[in-house]
């Protein structure tokens, strides 16, 4: 739990958002994140985010699935409970392949979904601070962290100069938490 | 206006002519040494010609398919180097003609005891007589001619329409929609030829007693993945000549994805065919795999799987390898060779049984076909602007990110 102070700026146009992101990155202020109602092409590049490693996780999950399926079936059909199926050998590799394939896909898919949720800090029952209710509807939201030594007024003025239609300052939990929304409301009251 | 012309470098031309000469020498040598020989030598002479002419026809026809499919899907990623598949597709008639000559020589010119297609004269063989309504000379000739004629027509037509678009009025999409409609028509033709009848007639009927319903799909997967590799090789060659500068790693990445995905698709079909036969274990079906897997061809059988499945899946899986020109060119060559070997395994064991060869004749003939491929395709490429500058998706393709 890390409570931080954020300056929030809202934009209503992609064409304004991109120059604003560039200016923010060049200004030296600490960018927290950008929230958009839909996937915006090229925003990850504009934000300078590095290529995701999700596919490496996918490969590892997939290989785990392959190993599980092959290992488990080999053990069952050769050691644990060998059955003669139509005179085929006990170690019956070609007939293991479809199940191996399915388990590889399933492990990779489920594992990648969970990894994705973890990386993005989203999960059923888990809460994360929402900077603006319209960030999932029609507004592009840039959240900036107000670090010690940052002038709040100057930062807000700067954000306004980049074309923000709405700005405010919020104190919020940075990461995700398990629980209910009133937990956050309690902080807000306490801090206000 | 972006305009770019390609002139065939004399070095490439002389290399291609050299390859063609090797092919012609192999053909003449084969004609002298094998054509008049015993049944096995005759079979060897024809089967190699059959394997190569059909293989090169199929991989060039895959270029028409990708044009038709991407036009129909309104895809923009291929537009930047659309001229490459167009030029390959426009030359399908060359390989079609060669394949027709070879096939007709085999069917009509080899007399009573046909060493390749036993169904030509069933000689009281009940199974072959039962199939004779489908497997007979007339049907074979008709289907072959219709297939080659339609493929050639569409290949040339796509090229012509795309070039006509250059001189069409700016922002006119009339021709574009015509290409889309033609794409739909071609997919229909292709589905009924390449994905069903044609491989049955030309390749599967070599083992006339054996049958597999998904055989054509499997052959299609083989030819499509090597067709994509062929497009990639020509595109990278053009880039090496400082042409097609607008084609970037993003575009090559897409071709790499196709090579990767369809290598797996090929394996999927290969395995679907293999596993059912292996599991059911019926003698009339297992003969096909008996000789290939446990007989004299077992080396090629496993090499085929390693080259066309294990190597592509391991090397092409990661993103950086699909964006590296060295690895994709290496993989394209490996894939084309691997699927050539796959065609070798489809054709050679039938007529020759354990008397297989892979020497001067088998390796010389494909050299000739590669020579023809380079000569005709680069000639067509040099005839028009390399960038389809009036294409509605030109801007989209230039900013394409994969």
UniProtKB/TrEMBL annotation, chain A:
Keyword Transmembrane: yes
InterPro entries hit by this protein: ActD
Pfam families reported in the protein's UniProt record: ActD (PF11821)
Superkingdom of origin organism: Bacteria
Bilayer-crossing regions: 56-77, 97-119
Lineage of the organism: Bacteria, Pseudomonadati, Bacteroidota, Chitinophagia, Chitinophagales
Protein name per the record: DUF3341 domain-containing protein
Annotated keywords: Membrane, Transmembrane, Transmembrane helix
Native source species: Taibaiella lutea
TrEMBL record, chain B:
Keyword Nuclease: no
Source organism superkingdom: Bacteria
Transmembrane segments: 12-34, 54-80, 92-111, 138-158, 179-203, 215-238, 258-279, 299-318, 325-346, 358-377
Keyword Membrane on entry: yes
Keywords tagged on the record: Membrane, Transmembrane, Transmembrane helix
Annotated protein name in UniProt: Quinol:cytochrome C oxidoreductase
Species per Swiss-Prot/TrEMBL record: Taibaiella lutea
């Amino acid at each position: 739990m890390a409570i931080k102070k954020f300056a929030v700026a809202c934009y209503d146009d992609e064409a304004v958002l991109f120059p604003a992101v560039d200016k923010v990155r060049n200004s030296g202020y600490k960018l927290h994140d950008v929230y958009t109602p839909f996937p915006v092409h090229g925003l990850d590049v504009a934000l300078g985010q590095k290529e995701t490693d999700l596919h490496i996780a996918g490969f590892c999950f997939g290989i785990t699935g392959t190993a599980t399926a092959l290992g488990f079936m080999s053990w069952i059909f050769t050691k644990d409970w060998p059955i003669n199926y139509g005179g085929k050998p006990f170690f019956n590799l070609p007939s293991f392949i479809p199940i191996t394939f399915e388990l590889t896909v399933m492990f990779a898919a489920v594992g990648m979904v969970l990894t994705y949720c973890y990386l993005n800090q989203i999960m059923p029952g888990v809460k994360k601070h929402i900077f603006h209710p319209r960030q999932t509807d029609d507004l592009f939201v840039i959240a900036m962290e107000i670090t010690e030594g940052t002038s709040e007024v100057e930062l807000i003025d700067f954000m306004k100069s980049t074309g923000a239609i709405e700005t405010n300052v919020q104190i919020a939990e940075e990461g995700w938490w398990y629980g209910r929304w009133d937990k956050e409301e309690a902080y807000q009251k306490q801090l206000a | 206006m972006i305009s770019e012309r390609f002139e065939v470098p004399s070095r490439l031309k002389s290399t291609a002519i050299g390859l063609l000469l090797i092919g012609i020498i192999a053909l003449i040598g084969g004609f002298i040494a094998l054509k008049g020989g015993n049944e096995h030598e005759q079979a060897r002479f024809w089967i190699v010609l059959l394997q190569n002419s059909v293989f090169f026809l199929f991989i060039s026809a895959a270029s028409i398919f990708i044009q038709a499919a991407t036009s129909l899907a309104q895809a923009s990623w291929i537009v930047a180097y659309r001229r490459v598949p167009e030029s390959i597709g426009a030359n399908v008639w060359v390989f079609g003609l060669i394949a027709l000559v070879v096939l007709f020589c085999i069917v009509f010119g080899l007399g009573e005891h046909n060493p390749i297609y036993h169904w030509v004269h069933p000689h009281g063989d009940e199974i072959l007589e039962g199939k004779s309504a489908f497997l007979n000379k007339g049907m074979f000739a008709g289907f072959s001619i219709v297939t080659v004629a339609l493929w050639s027509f569409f290949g040339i037509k796509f090229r012509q329409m795309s070039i006509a678009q250059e001189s069409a009025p700016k922002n006119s999409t009339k021709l574009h929609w015509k290409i889309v409609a033609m794409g739909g028509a071609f997919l229909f033709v292709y589905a009924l030829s390449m994905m069903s009848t044609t491989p049955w007639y030309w390749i599967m009927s070599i083992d006339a007693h054996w049958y597999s319903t998904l055989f054509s799909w499997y052959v299609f997967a083989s030819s499509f993945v090597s067709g994509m590799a062929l497009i990639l090789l020509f595109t990278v060659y053009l880039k090496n000549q400082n042409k097609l500068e607008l084609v970037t790693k993003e575009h090559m990445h897409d071709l790499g994805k196709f090579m990767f995905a369809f290598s797996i698709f090929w394996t999927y079909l290969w395995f679907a065919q293999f596993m059912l036969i292996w599991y059911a274990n019926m003698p009339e079906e297992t003969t096909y795999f008996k000789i290939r897997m446990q007989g004299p061809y077992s080396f090629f059988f496993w090499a085929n799987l390693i080259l066309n499945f294990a190597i592509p899946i391991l090397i092409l899986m990661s993103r950086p390898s699909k964006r590296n020109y060295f690895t994709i060119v290496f993989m394209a060559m490996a894939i084309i060779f691997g699927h050539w070997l796959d065609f070798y395994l489809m054709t050679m064991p039938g007529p020759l049984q354990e008397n297989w060869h892979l020497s001067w004749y088998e390796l010389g003939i494909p050299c000739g076909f590669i020579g023809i491929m380079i000569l005709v395709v680069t000639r067509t490429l040099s005839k028009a602007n390399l960038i389809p500058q009036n294409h509605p998706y030109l801007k989209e393709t230039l900013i394409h990110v994969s």
